[in-house]
Amino acid sequence: MTNKLHCPDYYINVDFPESLFFAEVYLKLTIPERDVLYIHGDTAIIGHDKGIALCPIANYHNILSHKVDLTINTGSMQEMSDEYVAYYMDAIQKANCDHFFSFNYFNQRIERQLEGMNCAAPVMGKDWSCTFRAYHHADMERGGMAEIFYSRTCKPEELLTRAEAAVRRPSPSNGLEFLELFDDVRGVDRADLLIEAAASAVLGMPYIPREALWLARKVQPTSYAERAFLYLLEKQAAGVDVSRTQDGSVRGHVDGGVVFADGLSYPIAQQTGGMLEGCMEMLGAVQLVGWAGDLARNLPVEAIVASVNGKLISKAVPIGRREDIEAGYGNGVQPAKFRIKVPLPGEPGQGIPEVCVFGLTSDHKAVPLSASGLPAGTIAHIVTGISSKRKIYSFLGQG
Amino acid sequence: MSDTKQYDIVETAKKNFRRAIKEGEDKKLPDAGERWGNYCSQTRLMIERFKTAQEVVHYVQNPLNNTGFETRPSGEALVPVAISMEDFCASNYPEFREYIHSFAETPMSLPETTTPLNGRLVSAPLLWHMRVVMAVSRLCRPRTILEIGGGVWRPGARMDDQ
Questions:
Q1: H-type helices in chain A, by residue range?
Q2: For the whole prediction, is pTM greater than 0.80?
Q3: Which of A25, A34, A37 is the mutation pick for testing B, counting most B CBs within 10 A?
Q4: Domain, as residue range, for B54
């Protein structure tokens, strides 16, 4: 740790408290002569302009007025949820800082996001313009990384001109060209320009980059053509397995109290196997989250399977621990947390697909998962329908 | 550093951590999402168990613990990665070649995640950090930096040797 190239006077690290715990210990162990300021809610930072500061995310807004020369993010914004990206974009917009450097994933295949958790990040506000950009391609499977330097120098009247010029260019055929296109149109709200840019990327690139979906979503389509285009992109993305825990090749069905999966039979046990706790709707699929376990034997389940109208359609393995479940049912139930994406047949609302979710145990039983608020032992059904204006997903129980 | 001093460092960090968590409860922060939510909940389980600072650093740097806050190739796999990353910086940032040797890993890091290279100790995070510093330094020389998601040790690498 003897970097002689460039050392700023003041460095502020904004991160999860869990990450800052490691940072604080590391810094104090390896460079004990340095002062490390931990920014709590009542910490006065006025006058602090030298050294290192660690700022938990919850207190980020307390320091936005502090003058900062450069904000940076490298290698992590693509791993954040959409909500966190929006949170940081809002903070950057309000911060007393006019420059932002990003070095993050870009141009990954829409159906293979690897560690990515969103469709595009960062997405700067309208008054930010890119003064430097480079694209570093890894390979066709992983896409690449975009290195971008933004400054708060863009005039609103420039946005439209730049976007119109961008969509007149030939379709992008490589990562850098797509980066230029994306960056030139991201700030406009005109549906025709956004959809043109997304379609241009779909046609020109060797594979569909996920940022094309971001552009198509921003359109908020109304016409049949725009809706169909977005629908097709969403269908592609619905196959994405962000945790690489999902097996879309599962074959089987549910019949007569037995789950048949990949040639094996699993009688449905009269015991609860966990809970469905959340359902995220997307075009062509639902994503279910919850926990599952072989509670009778204090073990994790081997897999979670979902059936649609009696046919097994997807399979996932549990990933991630749940302290509350381990405390309540035994510490052998780990990992318990899971997420499973369930493609639905046809257009949402055309018929009502019945979705059932089971945990498969190592002693070949299928344990049904309940939905929140339902008695243990019931099978969860997700009933999809269309109300007058919006889609409705709800859980119903059935013994 | 003595065990007592290391213990004090960890206890202070625990206090800061607990207070930050409590302060965060009063604010409506976004959901961390599946990936980081899992890493954070695993880390919360571990934090109260730590005793010494060295133990903490080795824990977070150990690829087997999969904490997510650092990605560290280890063993034989590290050597070609390190050579490739250093070569990349040397060829893409030739104006900064003379500084490459000033980026060195601390010997307190987990040994299997470090390797000697051209006369000093390196690791994959260190070389990634070097690349970022070079990329930024070509564009500007900021006196004050705010890093979103700075992770475990980027501050140290950047701030040392003022």
A1: 17-30, 82-94, 156-168, 175-185, 191-204, 210-218, 224-238, 323-329
A2: no
A3: A25
A4: 3-65
